[in-house]
Amino acid sequence: MSAAHAERLKDLASIQGVRQNQLVGYGLVVGLDGSGDQTTQTPFTVQSVISMLQQLGVNLPSTSTSNMQLKNVAAAMVTASLPAFAQPGQQLDVTVSSIGNAKSIRGGTLLMAPLKGADGQIYAIAQGNVVIGGAGASAAGSSTTINHLSAGRISNGATVERAVPTTLGAGDMINLELNDNDFSTASRVVEAVNKRFGMDTAVAQDGRVIRVRAPLSNGDRVSFLGALENIDVTPGRVAAKVILNARTGSVVMNQSVMLDTCAVSHGNLSVVISADNSVSQPNALAGGQTASNQNAQISINKEPGKVMLLRGGAALSDVVKALNAIGATPQDLLAILQAMKAAGSLRAELEVI
């Protein structure tokens, strides 16, 4: 069993209201080398170009709009994350993804695209040269490296135009939100905060939310939150969980998951987990005490005459190692673990991905 270790409160919880906001927009990528949208199949690209030109004062005759061939233009969606406390003038990275049938947007330029939040308001404007890494050829031309060419990034490609209002400074209370719902961790956080800042500073509202009394002035509040985030807290042990990849047979356990006595038969495989009671008797003059140990014996039989025995604690890792040693398939492993879970021998949450 691994020893408990302390973690910073910053790694265990977040402050309510301090969060990112997703932005999305629509724009045109121009300057492509003939790898843009096929306008016969993507009419929205033509409509976007006509609308853009009209806004710039260019009026096209109706006869020419139906025959436009825009091989150097691609319609794209632009996405970005607006960090907490972002102010107008701050720059953001954006991702540009083609939504038409363009073969590549490498080397293109994104024209000015407004980025909106979930409320429909414009919070940033994006524009710049799209960069796609990993696309090229070796000097000798004998090998090529091709990346996904229909999506790229623009570093510092968006400028924030509007700040998101926050309620962090309202009132004398702030809420800490644990990353995972855990009552024992919440109680330990309350204990650590009250020990550092005094009694009645923090109180747990439930297994996730902790209310903390903070200073009213902005300067004192920032200093208080900085000290609060760096408090060391020993989190409670998480619930036992086993994750199994049904395609590859990979098994990941978040801690040592012990098994109760059980017997499973699957095809030509049989798994038996039983207790092995042993007694330790000291010598007559040793002055020690008689001790009774309960070990586990795991017997896995694939064919007559071939039996693998593992002694010690009945850990799930021992069963998995033994099954892999005799060539059990991922499907065999999945069926056996599910049977153990259904029988109540596997006392852990089993998640199959």
UniProtKB/TrEMBL annotation:
Pfam families: FlgI (PF02119). Keywords: Bacterial flagellum, Cell projection, Cilium, Flagellum, Signal. InterPro entries: Flag_FlgI. It is found in: Bacterial flagellum basal body. The basal body constitutes a major portion of the flagellar organelle and consists of four rings (L,P,S, and M) mounted on a central rod. Belongs to the FlgI family. Assembles around the rod to form the L-ring and probably protects the motor/basal body from shearing forces during rotation. This is Flagellar P-ring protein. It comes from Herbaspirillum lusitanum. The gene is flgI.
